[in-house]
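Loading example: each entry is read as two labelled lines plus one structure line.
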Amino acid sequence: MVFQDKFQLRIPGPTPIPPSVQQAMSRPMIGHRSKECSAIIRQCSEDLGHIFGTNQTSLILSSSGTSALEAAVINVLSPGDEALVVTTGVFGERFAKIVDRYQMTCHRLEVEWGKACDPEQLIQALRQHPTVKAVFFTYCETSTGVLNPIHTLAQTVHEHSDALVIVDGVSCIGAVPCQMDDWGIDILVTGSQKAFMLPPGLAMVAVSEQAWKRIANNPSPRFYLDLLSYREKMEQETTPFTPAVSLLFGLQEVLHLLAEEGMEAVIRRHQLLKEMTRAGIRALGLELMTSDEDASPTVTSILGGGDEWSSEALRKELSAIGVIVAGGQQHLKGKIFRIGHMGYCDPLDICTILSSLEVSLHKIGRPVSLGQGVQAAQEVWIHA
Amino acid sequence: MVFQDKFQLRIPGPTPIPPSVQQAMSRPMIGHRSKECSAIIRQCSEDLGHIFGTNQTSLILSSSGTSALEAAVINVLSPGDEALVVTTGVFGERFAKIVDRYQMTCHRLEVEWGKACDPEQLIQALRQHPTVKAVFFTYCETSTGVLNPIHTLAQTVHEHSDALVIVDGVSCIGAVPCQMDDWGIDILVTGSQKAFMLPPGLAMVAVSEQAWKRIANNPSPRFYLDLLSYREKMEQETTPFTPAVSLLFGLQEVLHLLAEEGMEAVIRRHQLLKEMTRAGIRALGLELMTSDEDASPTVTSILGGGDEWSSEALRKELSAIGVIVAGGQQHLKGKIFRIGHMGYCDPLDICTILSSLEVSLHKIGRPVSLGQGVQAAQEVWIHA
């Protein structure tokens, strides 16, 4: 079928793979202990440091993002330790689940889904739980499209507590500002299949001096997710266990592409994609789930029509014309849909998505002025 | 450089990727919760069952083989539980390290490196440690090229104990016989980058009814490596965490290729590759590390020349003409070299390797009758 592989993958990860990255991943396999592989690992680690904004060594795990969330938890905490987990959606909840599972004491600061964490809420929670050893945040909460103000939140933690600041940056690092060292992030975790434009299968982690001290003194058992072994092996430009070599080939090319565009330009591009998407959605009379201020540059959540129309019916029409967007998760299932616009995505792609949305709204019988969403996005674009 | 990517990767994993598998992995990215991805996961799981020889559900983890060794340990055992680990080399030792790390009581049955475990040794060890809850084996010990007689060993365990039989099949499953259910294997673990002809990054696991009972009652914490969550999600044709989608594309194609050739033919092919390699090595006057009986069909270990010549010098010459073989690990470093002949490897590849070996032996100044190793291998081939 001619058009079988012609579709726009606009979910908030996995995201489309650029051709040169695809090509890099198709290089002939090499030994993972070869000099060539070591050179790639070293280069990737160095380049990741620039994106993370850290002088610490960036580590690469061959597994998906959740494994690195778990690594953060079990490397810094022991059973019985207290943790504060700020939950703004599904992925904040995942941190809390891991903390619970390992019999640590989990205090949840539950923020209403669709809103970012307010520093005042955080101060209250820190006062209520003065002995927490770590505070867990989600930088971009993929399930709602919220970007938490990590810079401010990290500073707030350090002003009011001795706790470590652990940040899940899976669905935004590589698309948004990040100054890990300056902001006081103690562990930063991200994954390959979002703004890094790779297939899933790699997780990237960096750890502050302060957190390394805690980790070195933490006797809790861990093996595949023991960050100390990754640090030790990275000094020898390798990994403790066989890495996902083809994804490393791709990561090297991705980091080259990001450096070529320049991180400031990459960040500006994602900001523009966000603004174009939001302008287009508004022009179509649809309701955004998050405020402009709280919204992430990587994913936009849009409310379904309640009793009037279903976001699932809309997604089905979109899919029929080759545009894949995400639905809502858990209690948001059927109530919202989400457009991913990170990584290999440019302003014209937003026009394409909005165009498909207009046609699909029409198909499910919604009143829609064709072209109006596209026009609003174009206005943002040409004035950027 | 024209010949930069023209090399023969003949280490015991990662192994070369067949072109159609490479192509499958280059398909456009899809959502991991899509129907299409579910269909791939279901198909892969079913096909893996045939190769494992099990009616149990085969599970797919996105991480390297070691993570699945760890999963086997931490899912069936709790701290304080006794385990018997049969170590025949580096990877048996890895099992023992994991057991130690999690504060289980690890009894080691240390078999001389280069030899397979003798059932009589095993019976003695089981008598000495009658309360072990699990016995850990390495089917193919990659570091020495030994294939342990897993069928006999598993039966021996069940005759003399109630312990579960856990098998690391990373460097041989997909190339050697395996009847998990009939042989009484309780957990079988393998990886993508060996006989499965894929890049590293996937681990495949199957679990017996008996082991599932133990796992369900094991309160020890685990999250990314919690096999129960993989079983639960596999019932819904998905995975608990984002899987390495591009590797799943590849796995589907690999399983198709293996089914097309037929597992009996695949197993015969690897047996032939082993016999050709050994005949060639002997004809060149080199010494094999393992007996014919103990040797694996997937990897052959050859002794270096002691004081007379160095296997590292030989490897360097081989590499210069585009043939990559592995050295020895740990105390075998510099003392042996290892030829991987599994997965995407046919009889002609063995002639190529032997040919390169003859030229390289000549280059390091060893007396060698050019063509003699190749000839011996050809004799085996034409009479097969």
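Chain A touches chain B through 51 residues (CB under 8 Å).
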